[in-house]
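Methods — Computational structure assignment.
A single polypeptide chain was analysed. Its primary sequence is given first, followed by the predicted tertiary structure written as C-alpha cells.
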Amino acid sequence: MIRREFITLLGGAAAAWPLAARAQQAIPIIGVLSGRTNRYPPFQKGVAETGYEHGRNVYLEFHSVDGRYDQLPTTARELVSRQVTVIAAMGIEAAQAAKEATKSIPIVFVFGVDPLAFGFVPNLNRPGGNITGMSLYTVELQEKRIDLLHELIVNGAPIGMIVNPNQTDTSAQVKIAETAAHAKGHLLVVLKASTANEIDSVFASLSENRVAGILVGGDNFLYSRRDQMIELAARYSVPMMLSFRDDAAAGGLVSYGTNLDEVYRQAGVYAGRILKGDKPGELPIQQPTRFDLVINLKTAKALGLEIPPTLLARADEVIE
C-alpha cells in the first residue's frame, strides 16, 4: 500500500478532489517519490516560482515508503501507470526506481552520487533521455568531512561512521571515508543502522569501539533521524560531523556541505520548466559550487570541547 500525501491549500479542500476530476481538467501532476516522509517545502517553492500553483494549474502528490526502500519500485510503477506528468525522485533509491519504471515520463532527481558513475546520464551538460536533476557530491565530500573531524579529536583515535546498509551508495561513501581516515592515522569503524533502535545500539557501542568522533553518512533515513542522533551524541559526549547547515542549527556540532534547501528549490524549478515544455535531456545536471562549514559553539561547550582557532577561522558560520 502506497502512502500518498497531497499538499493542502486553505484548509485542504482542493486536495480532496478525486483523481477523476483532475483528469477532466487536464491538470498536470508532479509525483514526488521519496524513501521518507517529507513534503519538501523548498521544492514546492521552486515549482511556484515557475508559475504553477497547486490546485489551479498543477497538482503535487507526495509518495513515501517510510524507509522501506524495497517498496520504491512498486510505487514508481504505480506513478507510471497513472501517467503522472513529472516524477521528482528524492534520493538515489527513488531515482533508480523511477529510472527503471519509465523511459518516457520526465524525471527530476536529487541525490548525492555521481550521475555519470551510476549510469543515470551519459553527459552532465546534455543528459539526454528523460532524466535530469541535482547531484549533491555526498560521496566525494566524505573525505573533507573526515579531514575536519580529524582536527577535533585525539590523533589516532578511531572514527565511527554511521551508515544505512540499505543505501545504494553506502559502499562508495565508506571507501572514500576509509581512505581519508587512514591517511590521517585513524581507524574507521563502520556502524550500520537502518532503524531508530539500531541507531540507539550504535551509540551504545561507541565506548566498546573506542570511537572518539562520528561521521554520519549521507542517507535519507539517517537525515530523518537527525534529532535522535544529535541527542545521543550529546548523551555520549562524542563530536559528530553532519552534512548540512540545518544539522548544525538543530544542535549538531559541525556540518559541511551545500545548501540543501537551495538544491530542492532548484529541482522544483526544473520540474516547473519541464511542465512549460523544456525537455529534461536538455537541462544540465546541476551540481553545487559552494560548500559551507558551520560550527555550533553552544554544542561544543556542552561537550566540553574547545574548537581549534584555526578551524573557527575557516568556518563560514559560527552558531553561538
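Note: Residues 1-24 have pLDDT under 50 and may be disordered.
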